[in-house]
Design goal:
single chain, 0% strand, globular, DoxX family membrane protein
């Protein structure tokens, strides 16, 4: 519990948990991530999946440690901006597919503005870092 004089570290710890889970999934089940790598990028999709997964794990670790939390929160904000094109690619693919259900299309559309919330939370965590 934070005192009235100390800002809450909860946003940073929430983001650390989210990034740890997502980063782990990049290695455990990489196929869904491969499929949303923008096709305009050079090289193999799997490389981008692994690099972004490693970046998420490293950022989660930086957010979890008080000494590196300020840096980690800034990196989290940048990471959420960097992966936005993949979310756009996913939404675009899902909306064009006749095999994608209406609820899945709604989820894909909802992910786009969610990035704003994630960036905002990362910036809040950066401000609150001790």
């Amino acid at each position: 519990m934070s005192s009235p004089n100390r800002p809450s570290q909860i946003p940073a710890l929430r983001l650390a948990a989210l990034l740890f889970g997502a980063g782990t999934l990049h290695f455990v089940r990489p196929q869904p991530f491969d499929s949303i790598v923008p096709r305009s990028l050079p090289g193999q999709a799997r490389t981008y999946t692994y690099v972004s997964g490693a970046a998420e794990l490293a950022t989660a670790a930086a957010l979890a440690v008080p000494r590196t939390r300020h840096l980690g929160a800034g990196l989290a904000a940048a990471l959420f901006v960097a992966v936005f094109p993949a979310n756009v690619q996913m939404a675009s693919d899902w909306f064009r597919s006749s095999r994608t259900s209406a609820p899945a299309k709604a989820l894909a559309a909802a992910r786009l503005p969610l990035q704003i919330t994630l960036v905002t939370e990362a910036l809040k965590a950066r401000r609150n870092a001790t």
